[in-house]
What does this fold into?
Amino acid sequence: MCSPRLGLQLVPAPQGGRESTTDTSNVLIVDLQRTFADSVAAWLENETDAAVVTAVYSPQSARCVLAKSRVDLMLVDGDLPDGAALTLCTEASARDHPPRVIVLSASADVGHIVAAIHAGVDAWVRKNESGQHLLQVIGRVARGETWVPPSELGQVFRLLLGELERMRQEDPLAALTQRERDVLLYMAEGADRKEVAERLHLSVNTVRTHMQSLMAKLGVHSALEAVAVTRAWLDASPPQGSAVLAGNRRG
It folds into this structure.
């Protein structure tokens, strides 16, 4: 089956090659083009083990679904007008159970990809790629990986590293309270919100509040971006940062 829009080739996966999303995954597809969204939804229902696949045609409808249901994977049209895709992704990444997010776009502009990463996006896929390629990316994202088109990867890294270098020079963590630093350092070790709450004897909601506060202070829009800033700071301040992390590991 071929999507009528922008050439996304929704071809069946080969026998034995069926990709599985996360267990009992709920997938949300957001695209202004109803036919495209419905085609992708129907195809994913046939080619993956997703429990529920829902197609909506506006950011407003997507927000309604996110408010009422748990969404594990969200595919978003990166070409929504007025930056609506990035706004939606930022909002989704701030939820208690943020979905994995894949942007589907007609292009692969490096600046837009970096902005999407800042908004909490996990992968960027061109709409002229094959359906099998999309399945592979979904599998990677379900395993916690990040994916961008290889042809743009070098430029994306250069832009991100340049931003981190500027942040490092400005010592962005100076504005954080000690508790916010503790939360961020545990996150940098790979702990999720529940694990951070257990280690610091806090509620998950309190950890979430600390994360929202520190992300606002750092000027970032996702936990991943905040952790990247932290690691840059640790590189710039090894004695203090190493001591704190060593203490955390012992605890």
Notes: The chain has two domains: 26-158, 172-250. Confidence is low (pLDDT under 50) at residues 1-7, 9-19, 238-251. DSSP finds eleven helices and five strands in the chain.
